[in-house]
Write a structure and sequence with these properties.
Layout (H helix, E strand, L loop, with lengths): L9 H17 L6 H5 L7 H7 L6 E5 L5 H8 L3 E6 L2 H13 L5 E5 L5 H4 L5 E6 L10 H11 E12 L23 E4 L15 E4 L4 H10 L3 E8 L1 E2 L8 E3 L2 E3 L10 E7 L2
Parallel strand pairs: 1-2, 1-4, 2-3, 4-5
Antiparallel strand pairs: 5-12, 6-7, 8-12, 9-11, 10-11
Helix pairs in contact: 1-5, 7-8
Length: about 270
């Protein structure tokens, strides 16, 4: 991690990183696009259970990347819109929809903070944001107001996200080494990608922010949404720490090791 220049354009920096990684991700074993095309589920069991039946409902997936999870909701009967700031990602998502024969999906290129204007005031029964999205946004209050404006009356936001407490832990998964309350931008310069650490890449800089649970919940309630639940989960979807044990595709601390939350999920409704 390095200090960030005050003049850095975080959108351009992060977009370049994500643009370059789209073809790496779509070809990776991590995403297993061929398996998805053949019918493999990409959503996590807890997400499906907590969101509930989506058949016949409209769903907006913010920061959708190349649309795999977006289209998984379409397979479950939702009419979906995916929004992402990466043009290559949106192109890949549109192509994937064609490959699996989904004609109830639309993908648009837009910065998240411009989503209300880009979607011309359209609202949705469900706004969904998946894992690893909020760290790319500097202003969680602006995010919450944007989300609230995109939800139809009676609809809800469903957010599944990596727990910020896990970000303060050292590699041993036990020692606290970082500041949970740090809110300034952090710049990282790392080659490869979580889907393929050995992939050759050149756009390696990212600018990210940490948002505490209290920040997220307070922002949503201030935007007029009512929190239905906040669940903290003791598992991860990848080997976040070497000590984690893998079992049926999820990773947990071994028996006897103190547990901490690694993922959280929440649902917030609009009156």
């Amino acid at each position: 991690m390095t200090e960030i220049s005050a003049s850095a354009d975080w959108r351009a920096v992060n977009r370049a990183n994500w643009d370059e990684r789209v073809p790496i991700h779509t070809a990776s074993e991590f995403y297993d696009v061929d398996g998805f095309v053949a019918g493999k589920e990409s959503l996590r069991d807890f997400e499906v259970a907590e969101v509930g039946d989506v058949a016949g409902r409209t769903l907006l997936h913010l920061q959708c990347h190349f649309g795999q999870d977006t289209l998984a909701w379409a397979r479950r009967g939702a009419t979906v819109t995916g929004l992402d700031f990466s043009e290559p990602a949106v192109a890949a998502a549109t192509d994937l929809a064609t490959r699996i024969g989904i004609d109830t999906a639309r993908f648009v290129t837009s910065d998240l903070y411009d989503a209300v204007d880009t979607l011309q005031g359209r609202t949705f029964d469900i706004v969904y944001t998946g894992l690893g999205a909020l760290c790319w946004l500097p202003d969680v209050d602006h995010w919450a107001r944007t989300v609230a404006a995109l939800i139809a009356p009676g609809g809800f936001l469903y957010l599944a996200e990596f727990h910020p407490f896990a970000d303060v832990l050292a590699e041993d998964g036990r020692t606290v080494e970082s500041d949970y309350f740090r809110r300034d931008a952090r710049m990282w310069d790392e080659s490869g990608t979580y889907a393929d650490m050995a992939a050759p890449t050149s756009a390696n800089v990212t600018i990210e922010w940490q948002h505490g649970i209290g920040d997220v919940v307070s922002a949503l309630t201030a935007a007029g949404l009512r929190l239905e639940f906040l669940h903290e989960h003791d598992f991860s979807l990848f080997a976040r720490f070497p000590v984690l044990d893998r079992n049926e595709g999820i990773y947990r601390f071994p028996v006897g090791h103190p547990r901490v939350p690694l993922i959280y999920s929440l649902r917030a409704t609009k009156a």
